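Comment thread on ticket #2218

A.B. wrote:
> Attaching the input chain for the structure job we discussed in standup.
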Amino acid sequence: MDAAIRVTDLAKRYGDLRAVDGVSFEVKRGEFFGILGPNGAGKTTTLEIVEGLRKPDSGTVSLLGEAPWPRNKKLGQRIGVQLQASAFFDRLTAREQARTFADLYGVPRAHADEMLETVGLTEKANTPMEKLSGGQAQRLSIACALIHEPELVFLDEPTAALDPQARRNLWDLLRKVNADGRTVVLTTHYMDEAESLCDRVAIMDKGKILKIDTPAALVKGLAAATRISISSGFLSTDEVREVAGDVAQTDDDGVELTFTTHDPATILTTLAARSALDGLRVSGATLEDVFLDLTGREYRA
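C.D. wrote:
> Ran it. Output below, let me know if you need it in another format.
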């Protein structure tokens, strides 16, 4: 069985709102799969149905060859879930919290201590929950989700509200989790996170999946323009106009002069001929460009 998850025509309504509207996808065993979408896209509802936490109105889900709903106790030892908001016992220390999860799963308490070391919390083992930082609490949440060594791990926005250093450290941990052979399903608002971690991503909006592919394939399929930037003030106004010709648009913010073009070779050749490569920076499309192209740029409530 190659698929860890099979979802077919999944639907969930809340009154007139179609939170999940005909969603279908598969996740392969050992894959790092991301679900991306703006607020209200249906990501969390979809994940909760797949995890067996919520009943669908229609459609089917196969999770490691089992139906997750009605609540399937067989899957309890095989999956790990880290929710958007984790509810811990405030007065317990990090070690006590981890050991509580170990007891619930029938896992030796020594393994709980090992998991604290894995997520870098050994020095905080005796710290009460309410005194852990946001990043430390997130790492503890992931440790508790992994404490019984599940085959499949669900992570719902695990790096939300973390500082850049904490996010990058958590990325390293998630890569290790996946490298150990576990299937990982991630929802996130961070496009760079998905681009860095995920083998494939599904972009979701208004309850529907718009596209599924590797981040690289999605970016390539966008056929977006290339941005070429050099130091502002290096070329005169007339020279900028000559370099851009009819193949590029220009923007000068006083720090960088940027040429946006579908013909980067011509622009780069012309700049090189003029020895105007000071501060050169070339950037193509990113997963964020794909995301905005598919879901739009308007503000969401």
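A.B. wrote:
> Thanks. Noting for the ticket: The mean pLDDT is 91.
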